Here is the input.
Amino acid sequence: MTSPCLPILTPMLAHTAEPFSSFEYLYEPKWDGFRCLAYAENSATKLLSRRGVDLSPNFPELTMLHSQVKEPPAILDGEIVIFDGAKEQFQLLLQRMRKGPQQTPDRDVPALFVVFDLLYSKGVPLLDMPLQERKNRLTEGVSINDYMVINSYIVEAGKALFDAAVAQGREGIMAKRLQSQYLPGKRSREWLKIKPLITTEATVIGYIPKGPNAFTSLALGQYLATSYELIYIGNVGTGFTEADMGEILTELKTLTFSTAEPTSAMSKGCQSMIWVKPQIVIEVRYLKYTPTGSLRHPSYIRRRYDVLPEECLFPQPEV
Here is the structure.
């Protein structure tokens, strides 16, 4: 339970964009981790994922973050990462999640909370404050140690920071309007994610089997924001390791529909397709969407446990 004065929020989300520079924006590193809201009480910290899952048992070293907050109760927005050398390793986070909360995490690879926003302080909401002011309050209100650091940022020089991120092989950068308010649960163009590769999240709606322990490809779907209809956007068959394929296929076999296919909106003409309930979310890289709405040359990157299927939205045309 959180304090009565701290509501349960969902994180503000960003749209994708190409690199740009503007004096109206600040730019900060994008991290390859789990997005998380930390609820820092007077004597405890609770960690909630984007989906509202309690991550505290999986990352016990981060449950003392309240001791670094000067004016609790507070809500901090940030990213949980695990480093191996100088670079964060998403696979180590997945290993933590697979162990489950009942098993002691590997303390040889402690997690780090990279905080980039302060949403509540002293139990008072800061959501309507401009981002620049929230950043100032964050710097004044949080002390850093081995388990929490404040995300760095620069103003105006977005292209230069992006080029540096690419040169270092990093995840990309975030661009946030200095005057932006915090909009819980909203995807806003006030915040933009800029990545070296074009990626998207999609939910798995079927697969073409290749023997008992493998598949040829996965059928992918996204939801139309206007009608909330689930549409087919193509298949992905590259990028999977043998371990990836085995793990995904094991779960898919529990999600099979009893009928031939779940909805008439799905792709027709693939007799070997086994349709499944849309519960698994994956991230893929691709070149572009074709005029018919399919992904061109998609390739699997990873599972996304922090994204709900209904959050996988078909891109809307720019207006």
Remarks:
- The first helix runs from residue 90 to 99.
- The mean pLDDT is 90.
- The first strand starts at residue 13 and ends at 16.
